[in-house]
Design goal:
mainly alpha
Length: about 230
């Protein structure tokens, strides 16, 4: 008995083509770099026509921006799933740093890095990436608040997340250059900071109390009488 092959719907075919283009773009960026990534190579690897490419993406910048968004989204999902699979007692900030570092050392960051560097001189690409990165920061902040609510309640939490990701980006670049010792030093400092991050809300409360005390003392101190010359 022969089995009839189910035909995919138009929406399924469209989604398949869309994903194939994004995967092909990411592969080209990782293997060839931004300067050598061409739409001809992308459509060849994806196995689609140029018409299909233009149907999905109006410009190369739009395609590249979507590829970064695709990569970032995949990294977010990988992090959430791998972190959720850990035993509850191991779901610490320090462990989160280790898992993020694994992602930053992977091919996904290499693809994103190619575009981040290119965006410095490509205004159209820069505008597209700004939207992608802003959305990424919102998602990361939401995950941080959900996983580590006590630490996220500190006034400096947004700056902490930004600092951590900036440090990991720099560490990943030095790692790509073969400067393993430098990258490990950076990650070790982040691990140390993560280990003591639980104290941040307490430190913030002490700082606020100290500021209030200083302000109160300044306003309640009697005015000094100037000496008569």
């Amino acid at each position: 008995m022969t089995r009839t092959r189910e035909r995919r719907t138009q929406a399924e075919r469209r989604a398949h083509t869309h994903a194939a283009l994004l995967d092909a773009t990411t592969r080209c960026l990782v293997e060839r770099g931004y300067s050598r990534t061409s739409t001809n190579d992308i459509i060849r690897i994806a196995g689609v026509s140029r018409g299909a490419l233009l149907h999905h993406f109006a410009s190369k910048a739009e395609l590249l921006g979507a590829a970064v968004d695709h990569v970032v989204t995949r990294c977010e999902v990988e992090f959430r799933e791998s972190f959720a699979a850990l035993p509850v007692e191991e779901r610490t900030l320090e462990r989160a740093v280790d898992q993020l570092w694994d992602l930053f050392r992977g091919p996904s960051f290499d693809a994103a890095l190619e575009l981040l560097v290119a965006a410095r001189t490509d205004l159209e690409l820069r505008i597209v990436l700004q939207d992608v990165l802003a959305r990424f920061e919102r998602n990361v902040s939401a995950d941080f608040a959900m996983l580590f609510p006590a630490t996220a309640s500190a006034p400096q939490s947004r700056a902490i997340v930004r600092f951590a990701f900036a440090a990991l980006q720099g560490a990943a670049i030095t790692d790509d250059l073969g400067l393993d010792g430098m990258s490990e030093d950076v990650v070790n400092v982040l691990r140390l900071a993560a280990r003591h991050a639980a104290a941040l809300p307490l430190l913030a409360a002490v700082e606020v109390t100290a500021d209030a005390t200083t302000t109160s003392s300044a306003t309640s101190e009697p005015a000094r009488e100037e000496p008569v010359p």
